[in-house]
Specification:
7 helices; single chain; alpha+beta; globular; Fumarylacetoacetate hydrolase, domain 2; 12-stranded mixed sheet; 2 domains; 5-stranded mixed sheet; 35% strand
Length: 279
């Protein structure tokens, strides 16, 4: 199944993709859907109001997750381009719900940064509460996958040893368009998918999720050891090589560009970068 959160008539609705239509599932958004024990059955069988896919205004696939945990340095080529050694453990940081935007929303580039960068990522969406999950329990906790662009203010990221302040800027992180359940993807809960990011049509990143050091199941196990994972929580699995910061010379988003972030079998985000003024 492919599930999304649709904005319509001043509210949101959880929907299922059915050909060229989106079928209302009777709940407010995908996060509210996943909070139900019977979400799979409901998502598969509901037959509510239908909306056209063409022109649909999609919100972040989960508009208000209780947490967004992100993983840095998880593709070998990206680790190498950033001049670092392969890590023994996942490198974790966080984003917040206010950072998230929809599949075609504008990315707001803060006036306070001179180093605004892109990062295509496969994101895990959690489908059940878990703590210290292992093996099959971790696998079953994965509701599906979506696309995330981990936009980063590099100058703020590297002000200190902690990355959070470079990663959590308001209205900067597209996520969507769909949550795709593992049964629809080659590799299931460990999918092998092509990922790509372009800026104004120029390919900046192109790789496969098969190059991940820590796969989605590893990450659910690791993160749930530290903190409880709730339905709708998101784990962004890291980005491959090709980020602007590592280029010679470095390249950054200044405003006016169109960034397309896509993953095979899941969908694409298409977002315009809009420069904000600093306070």
């Amino acid at each position: 199944m492919k599930l999304a959160t649709l904005r319509t008539d001043g509210t949101t609705r959880a929907v299922r993709l059915d050909g060229e239509e989106l079928v209302d599932l009777g709940v407010a958004d995908v996060g509210a859907l996943l909070a139900r024990d019977d979400w799979r059955e409901l998502a598969a069988s509901a037959d509510g109001t239908r909306y056209p896919v063409a022109g649909a205004d999609l919100a972040p696939v989960v508009p208000a997750p209780t947490k967004v945990v992100c993983v840095g340095l998880n593709y070998r080529n990206h680790i190498q381009e950033m001049g670092r050694d392969l890590p023994e453990h996942p490198t974790l940081f966080a984003k917040f719900a206010d950072s998230l935007i929809g599949a075609r929303d504008d990315i707001l580039r803060p006036g306070e940064t001179d180093a605004f960068d892109w990062e295509v990522e496969l994101a895990v969406v959690v489908g059940r509460p878990v703590r210290r999950a292992r093996g099959e329990e971790a696998e079953q906790a994965i509701a599906g996958f979506t696309v995330l662009n981990d936009i980063t203010c590099r100058d703020w990221q590297f002000r200190t040893r902690e990355w959070l302040q470079g990663k959590m800027w308001d209205s900067s992180t597209p996520v969507g368009p769909y949550l795709v359940t593992p049964d629809e993807l080659p590799g299931g809960v460990r999918p092998a998918l092509d990922v790509k990011l372009t800026v104004d049509g120029e390919v900046m990143q192109s790789d496969t999720t098969g190059d991940l050091l820590f796969d989605p199941v590893d990450l659910v196990e690791y993160v749930s050891t530290v903190v409880r994972l709730n339905p709708g929580d998101i784990i962004a699995t890291g980005t491959p090589g090709g980020v602007g910061h590592a280029r010679k010379p470095a390249r950054y988003l200044t405003g006016g560009e169109t960034v397309v972030t896509e993953i095979e079998g899941i969908g694409r985000l298409e977002n315009r970068v809009v420069a904000e003024k600093s306070a």
